[in-house]
Amino acid sequence: MIETTAYLREQLAAIYDPEETRAISRWIIEHVTGYTPAQQILAKDTPIDPQQREAVRMIVRRLKLHEPIQYIVGECTFHGLTFSVNPSVLIPRPETGELVEHIVQRHGAAPSLRVLDIGTGSGCIAITLSRQLLRPQVMALDLSAEAIRTAQANAERNGAEVRFVCADLFDPHLTLPGPFDLIVSNPPYVCDSEKSDMAAHVLDYEPHAALFVPDDDPLLFYRAIARRAHEWLTPGGWLYFEINAALSTETAALLVAEGYSDVRISRDMEGKNRFAEGRVGAGGG
């Protein structure tokens, strides 16, 4: 196993920084052999068999083509839970975990909250809130049938009760069995003009429909959700978004214009304006 570790660190050094190289090397060996990082230390002198060696080399070839390690191994960790991921869904990001943590800190003691997650993808937000809030009723919406299937499998994997709905947010006839106390969404928000700044592992492999919006209307999802949320939120209910940091001022202005109170922009761990929130009035509008 020492030889395999050395091979991985040599091959991955040109792709990742040293810390990432060490972490991904351990992840690959665990995926291929079943040895946890702690077991890898104890079994460092144990050679891997030829079939496993070829599996490692195949993973390295895919990584050199910038394919995300999460898609290669088929899973990732989010907020302490393990989620299956594939190219039909975005790979959950740490900043999305920060949004979930903010919601849990604010609402974690309130029982039986009704929660709607719009654009659920892998289901990471809905499932984590289902597990961490106090007996919530959680519904999750996505346009992609493949994403819904992935999210349903993740709910079963993590023992979460979530009702999934495959539907189009922009369908004017869409009705949902609300009202909801909270609506949360991490919708597409990267402008088409920003594609040139994206890393290859994102641009070449992750679903563009879940990432990009047109330059001439970058807030179209936020506007649609904010307007429909007046129908779906209970009076005093909260709306939470992950946002494009470059459009934080515009997003806040949109929420104010759509009649939300307590509008607030907050920063992620990197200091970027990454989250927006607002509340419907006591009269529901």
From TrEMBL:
A Gene Ontology molecular function term of the record: peptide chain release factor N(5)-glutamine methyltransferase activity
Gene Ontology biological process terms, A to Z: methylation
Keyword Membrane recorded: no
Record domain Methyltransferase small: where: 99-201
Key words, A-Z: Methyltransferase, S-adenosyl-L-methionine, Transferase
Entry's transmembrane regions: none
Sequence positions that bind S-adenosyl-L-methionine: 119-123, 142, 186
Binding locations of substrate: 186-189
Annotated ranges, domain Release factor glutamine methyltransferase N-terminal: 6-74
Catalytic activity of the protein: L-glutaminyl-[peptide chain release factor] + S-adenosyl-L-methionine = N(5)-methyl-L-glutaminyl-[peptide chain release factor] + S-adenosyl-L-homocysteine + H(+)
Enzyme class: transferase
InterPro entries for this protein: DNA_methylase_N6_adenine_CS (IPR002052), HemK-like (IPR004556), N5-glutamine_MTase (IPR050320), PrmC_N (IPR040758), RF_methyltr_PrmC (IPR019874), SAM-dependent_MTases_sf (IPR029063), Small_mtfrase_dom (IPR007848)
CDD domains, A to Z: AdoMet_MTases (cd02440)
Listed EC numbers: 2.1.1.297
Function comment: Methylates the class 1 translation termination release factors RF1/PrfA and RF2/PrfB on the glutamine residue of the universally conserved GGQ motif.
HAMAP family in the cross-refs: RF_methyltr_PrmC
Family named by the database record: Belongs to the protein N5-glutamine methyltransferase family. PrmC subfamily.
Name listed for the protein in its UniProt record: Release factor glutamine methyltransferase
Recorded name of the encoding gene: prmC
